[in-house]
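Weekly structure sync, notes
Attendees: PL (lead), two postdocs, one rotation student
Agenda item 3: pending single-chain targets
PL asked that the sequence for the first pending target be pasted directly into the notes so everyone works from the same version. It is reproduced below exactly as submitted, 345 residues in total.
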Amino acid sequence: MNPPPPARRTELLAAAAASVTVLLWASAFVSIRSAGQAYAPGALALGRLLAGALVLGAICLIRREGLPARAAWPGIVVSGLLWFGLYMVVLNWGEQKVDAGTAALVVNIGPLIMALLAGWLLGEGLPARLLAGMAVSFAGAAVVGLSMSGEGGASVLGVLLCLLAAVAYAGGVVAQKPALRHGSALQVTTYGCVIGAVACLPFAGQLVSDAREAPLSATLNMVYLGVFPTALAFTTWAFALARTTAGRMGATTYAVPALVVLMSWVALDEVPGWITLAGGLVCLAGVAVSRSGPRTGATATATAATAATAATAATAMTVAAPATGVGAAAESRPEPCPEPESEKA
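Predicted structure, written out during the meeting:
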């Protein structure tokens, strides 16, 4: 029996996978904005999901991946409906009303909603920092909404749709996490994508109609969305999520809005207004506040434990003979914390 991989190597693999996801998801906001000029929201979501399902299905056949365990299906179904289905439709709709950077800023309150749902559904509680962060983020969302009100009611609707997309995204992640204990990242992603595509089948007629009139560039953007930000990025996300917590993975998406603003500026010549950017930064600040409590507490506990261990070793070194100094120094290193079951590779 081979020993498990070192914790450091697992962390690096998860970080690399998360980085690929963040980069591709940032590009998705720009591609959606571009393809959305020719495709209706539901049609674009269905085309993207069909392209993703074909690629993922082919990979499953090549790798001879079977069906996931029965225990994984509830999470796969819920994440497929919420994340692959509802999220993609409402995000496409929202990006027809607001620019890509604004959409990314609003959607990225998702990690805060993840923590809120985990506290409610998984019994993790609602700490004061979470409630404070929620208040700050929604104040930022209100600023974004007010900044867009001068553009007309359609822009305010776009902000509300992006908020709904954030809720669907958060719910999908919370549902997906337990499914990954019973199925591989490829299995969970593939069948979630298939379920999302089935849920979007009512838009099939519109997809055929739009495809006839759409320029080649819009169709290529739709295919790109299915192959890279869906098939590849959702798989790397699930791979990383299986090796860390939903909260930590949610925190990695902080980089998405900055990348989206840069990409949309270069590719689409779109940049959100200063007030909109300020509101978006307030949204992200609220997410940071909500996530800071447990990490700070854990760091303080680890620091105290290390200090206590070092003090004990120092006392032993003072009493012991000089010849035992090396052994005492070795004993002063704190033992690594065992990895939680849900975070093992």
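Discussion points:
- The CA atoms of residues 107 and 166 lie 5 Å apart.
- The chain has 14 helices and no strands.
Action: rotation student to compare against the earlier draft before next sync.
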